[in-house]
Amino acid sequence: MPLLTRLGRTALDALRGTGALGLVVGRTVLALPKLERRELGRALVQFGYGSLPLALATAALAGIIVVLQSGIYVQRFGARAFLGWAAGYGVLWEFGPLLLGLIMSARLGARNAAELALMQVGGQIEGLRGIGLDPFAILVAPRVVAMEVSMLALSGVTFAVAILFESVAALLALGLPVRVFFGTFSQLLGPLDLLGGVVKTGIFGLAIALLSTTVGLSARGGAHAVGQAAANAVVRSCAAIFVLDFALTSLLAGWMG
């Protein structure tokens, strides 16, 4: 295939995808006042509560890894007392939101896209339109709200667990007393550092919800389209998270001074 033709098709696909995303955003916002509350409750249990064990396990392992990795450098430069600040900053500001976003893009994004794609290719969504019901009020808006609320709730819990395991790892692996760990943590980290991590997580959650919904509703074909939608949701969500992380880190770091 000629290069120009390939570039043209890529640009056309990107334009079509941007338009579909904009349509999903607009129709979801319009459907928010009349969203189906029972579907919202089911989605909160499925997306939020169901993700808790995975999120906690990831947070514990991330906390231990951050301490073991950063411990090498703080010991080399004789700065063990600052390990609490360095490890806490890493979890609150960068590793916590990023890891949570990537893990949830695989769990929530893939599941949401696959379920919507299955209903799309199976004709259920068209059937809802046929009897005068709005699929965005019944299916889409509750899922988007549930994923956003779940990500924000999980961020607070996972950050706390990660920091707790960091302090334990610092004590067991490096012999750093817990009071010293939390001493520099509380002295050098402020509420804005926590706020930055929560803001990042919330925006990542919104990106996962909207992208996976767009991919799911755009599915056409048979069973192959369902699997393809799940895979595309993960790839696009992960790519969006890295781009957003770069932009938000630059923006928030400059704003918070």
Distance between the termini: 50 Å
Main beta sheet strand tally, sense and closure: none
Low-confidence stretches: none
Pattern of helices and strands: HHHHHHHHH
Tell me the β content: under 5%
Helix-strand makeup class: mainly alpha
The shape, in one word, is elongated
Radius of gyration: 21 Å
How would you sum up this structure, described in words?
The structure is a single chain. The chain has helices spanning 3-31, 37-48, 52-76, 83-122, 124-130, 135-174, 178-188, 191-217, 223-256. α6 packs across α8 (191-217). The chain is mainly alpha-helical and 257 residues long.
Write the layout of secondary structure elements.
Elements: H1 3-31, H2 37-48, H3 52-76, H4 83-122, H5 124-130, H6 135-174, H7 178-188, H8 191-217, H9 223-256
Top keywords for this entry?
257 residues, mainly alpha, 88% helix, elongated, ABC transporter permease
Quick description:
This is ABC transporter permease. The chain is mainly alpha-helical and 257 residues long.
